[in-house]
Amino acid sequence: MVVTKEIEAQNGKWYQVMTMPYVRHSSNKTAGAIITFNDITELKRTQQQLDKKNEILMRINADLENFVHTASHDLLDPLNSIEGSITVMNAINVNNAELNEFLPIINTSVKKFRSLISEIAVVAKIENDSLVTELVDMDEILDNIDWSLSEKIKSSGAVIKRDVRVKHIVFSKKNLRSILYNIISNAIKYRSERAPLIEVRIAFENEHTILSVQDNGMGMDKRHVDKIFDKYSRLPTTVDGYGIGLYLAKKIVNASGGTITVESEPDKGSKFSIIFSNLPAVI
Predict the structure, then answer these.
(1) How far apart are CA 121 and CA 232, in angstroms?
(2) Cis peptide before 236 (omega within 30 of 0)
């Protein structure tokens, strides 16, 4: 049996002490012990420096998270008052044509402001949520998304097909739903003149679990594909939104060690593929 310990000497140096039995070959009996000392002072100092930096980063991250949540909460309070005042203004019959022209603009701006505050709060939660993994039922997630998007599916005539060959994966349930919801809702939002046809497939291929979402929407030019995951990138800009959803999706997937890519052609649609890293398939 080999026993390994790390000790600090009085002079401040660190040693790795390894103790193992000394066995005589002739009798195959233990006749003492072999003790070796390895100087690991530099390694230990580097490790301690990294530990301190990680501790500082964790404190900064916690402070930033608290700031974002506090700011979001504090911003929503006066926003509620503004929304209440605007609701009263909308109920009053005003003959001023100029004021009537600006009221819809104010209404839209307030709604967008509320949405943006909510999305900022989501950014702060991503890394913490990524740490909480569980066995996720893929059909359950897709059923929930179908229900949430039922009105949009009905009004657009969208058809969502499934090919679920991996029934369960270990991941953050909230984050996976957020990713799929965003991609599927975008497929409906950025539709072409055709009724949306969306195919969701998850399978175990080439030692990886791969989740893909393919649509027949308006697609995009190749020069825009690389920008689609940038923060606040939105193509086309005529559609409502802030372009933060796919940025968050990439951040979530990358944080888990996976990758997300997109293939797209104008008027032919887009295909988003998520390759989960070191994720066992539960078929």
Answers:
(1) 15
(2) yes
**For the segment 177-193, what is each residue's pLDDT rounded down to a tens digit?**
989 998 999 999 888 88
Q: How far, in Å, are 29, 177, 264 from residue 181 at the CA level? A: 67, 6, 19
Closest CA to 45 of 2, 97, 92, 6: 6
Rounded distance between C-alpha atoms, residue 65 and residue 131, angstroms? 15
pLDDT tens-place string over residues 99-136: 777 777 777 777 777 776 666 666 656 555 555 678 88
Write down the pTM of the prediction. 0.57
Phi, psi at residue 4, to the nearest 5°?
Answer: -120, 130
In whole angstroms, what is the distance from residue 78 CA to residue 25 CA? 83
CA–CA separation, 121 vs 131, rounded Å? 17
pLDDT digits (tens, 9 = 90+) for 197-248: 999 999 988 888 999 999 999 888 877 777 787 765 555 544 454 457 788 8
**Interacting residues of 142 by C-beta distance below 8 A, sequence separation 6+:** 160, 162, 164, 180, 200
Token pair for 161: 């097909």
Cα separations (Å) of 159 from 56, 74, 219, 267, 269? 49, 41, 17, 18, 14
Could you tell me which of 41, 36, 34, 33 has the C-alpha nearest to residue 17? 36
243: left (phi over 0), alpha (psi -120 to 50) or beta: left
Nearest by Cα to 128 from 182, 175, 73 = 175
In the chain, the amino acid numbered 71 is A
For 222-262, give the DSSP string: HHHHTTTTSTT--SSTTSSS-S-HHHHHHHHHHHTT-EEEE
**How do 259-265 and 159-164 pair as beta strands?**
unpaired
